[in-house]
């Protein structure tokens, strides 16, 4: 896609008509050559915002995909990193990129970790979760963290209604809703189902204390608002 090394239109069509898991298995070898991979600028901005809050012990990338986000964990964690994803194809790519990481194939809606990590991150995964599924994921991440642990992820600011991006995202979500209404299995990928307010409420319900910081390295919109913020969800510390 958009390059000779990326997926063809036919490959993208096959992926879009598959389940989420099967679609990513198929796309995995070429995923990092598509615009869907989290840009390095976002990863570096996240690492920069996390660095003053660390260093952290052990880190977990939730929905790690090909492992792009693990570069953020490597920059701020000193006791090793791990990743979890349900696509075997994506995990194979992550294993090639990060041979020393612990990689687990699992459904993030039913994570089995228990107090093993000091930092968890996720990049670009919330759109693959229906709003009703977020509480289970956030509860699982909460269990996976040690007392005082941090769950962090970037979230883009809503584009202005007058922008082309606003209408492009609206159109994409509309097409996906039609596709999922007429075709099985569904492919869950939406851009407008995880507004900051709703995400904040779900994190608080899971037991996190939630703050945000602007990712200033990514710039500001014409109205002065940050293009993206880093959500910082902190698990309460244990007894002194």
TrEMBL record:
Residues 60-149 form the Methyltransferase domain. Keywords: Methyltransferase, Transferase. GO terms for molecular function: methyltransferase activity. Signal peptide: none annotated. This is Methyltransferase domain-containing protein. InterPro entries: Methyltransf_25 (IPR041698), Methyltransf_Superfamily (IPR050508), SAM-dependent_MTases_sf (IPR029063). The lineage of its organism: Bacteria, Bacillati, Actinomycetota, Actinomycetes, Streptosporangiales. GO terms for biological process: methylation. The keyword S-adenosyl-L-methionine does not apply. SUPFAM superfamilies: S-adenosyl-L-methionine-dependent methyltransferases. It comes from Actinomadura physcomitrii. Pfam families: Methyltransf_25 (PF13649). Transmembrane segments: none annotated.
């Amino acid at each position: 896609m958009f390059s000779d090394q990326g997926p063809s239109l036919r490959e993208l069509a096959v992926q879009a008509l598959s389940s989420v898991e099967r679609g990513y298995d198929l796309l995995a070898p070429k995923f990092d050559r598509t615009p869907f991979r989290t840009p390095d600028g976002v990863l570096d901005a996240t690492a920069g915002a996390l660095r003053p809050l660390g260093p952290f012990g052990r880190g977990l990338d939730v929905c790690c995909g090909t492992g792009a986000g693990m570069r953020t964990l490597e920059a701020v964690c000193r006791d090793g990193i791990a990743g979890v994803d349900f696509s075997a194809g994506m995990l194979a790519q992550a294993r090639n990129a990060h041979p020393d990481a612990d990689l687990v194939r699992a459904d993030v809606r039913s994570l089995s970790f228990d107090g093993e990590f000091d930092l968890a991150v996720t990049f670009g995964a919330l759109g693959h979760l229906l709003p009703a599924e977020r509480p289970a994921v956030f509860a699982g991440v909460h269990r996976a963290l040690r007392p005082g642990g941090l769950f962090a992820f970037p979230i883009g600011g809503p584009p202005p209604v007058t922008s082309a991006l606003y209408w492009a995202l609206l159109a994409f979500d509309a097409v996906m809703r039609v596709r999922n209404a007429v075709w099985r299995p569904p492919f869950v990928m939406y851009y407008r189902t995880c507004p900051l307010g709703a995400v904040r409420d779900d994190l608080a319900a899971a037991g996190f204390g939630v703050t945000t910081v602007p990712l200033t390295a990514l710039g500001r919109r014409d109205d002065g608002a940050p293009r993206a913020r880093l959500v910082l969800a902190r698990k309460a510390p244990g007894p002194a």
